Amino acid sequence: MKWTEEHATGVPVVDDQHRALFAFSEELRDVLENDAGEKTYDLSLDFLKTYAEVHFGIEEKCMLAHLCPVAGRNRKEHGAFTRMIAEEEALFRSQGFDRQRALELTDRIDQWLDSHIRRIDTQLRDVVTDGDVASRS
Ligand SMILES: [Fe+2]
Ligand SMILES: [Fe+2]
Fold first, then answer.
1. 123: CATH
2. How far is the CA of 29 from the centre of ligand 2 (A)?
């Protein structure tokens, strides 16, 4: 799935990070569909977890700083994403690599990103007028 204008939040750094998350999921799917990615799967999960954590932190701060009405829901839904990755990580550790399960994860990531960004993150557009993550305008 690709980032489109419908995912725009009006905050450049947040949009860049969303683009990167979509791009990473697409790359991972390509690799998995080409019968590769098994050896680096733990690194992929690790990257995803770390990158999402950093992104969520920046975005949550931005919503709080601009008194965004969905700040609480945003944070809660981020927790669900983190759990989704942690669950896959636990399955990977206990049952090993499963290409089908990994491909399903990329679908779930795309669906989550698309739905969450459209419903929640784009509400930043209404409160951030200067594209600045930190200060209130
Ligand atoms: Fe978010
Ligand atoms: Fe986001």
1. 1.20.120.50
2. 20
106 alpha carbon, distance to own chain's centre: 11
Ligand nearest to the CA of 123: 1
* Distance between Cα 26 and ligand 1 center (Å): 19
* 18 CA distance to ligand 1 middle (Å): 9
Tokens representing 52 are 């999402």
* Total count of domains within the chain: 1
Long-range CB contacts for residues 26-29, cutoff 8 Å, separation at least 24: 26/1, 26/2, 26/106, 28/102, 28/106, 29/103, 29/106
pLDDT digits (tens, 9 = 90+) for 122-132: 999 999 987 67
In angstroms, the CA 18 to CA 24 distance is 10
Q: Which amino acid is at 73?
A: R
pTM of the model: 0.94
CA of 49 to the centre of ligand 1 (A): 14
Condensed to tens digits (0 to 9), the pLDDT of residues 49-63 reads 999 999 999 999 999
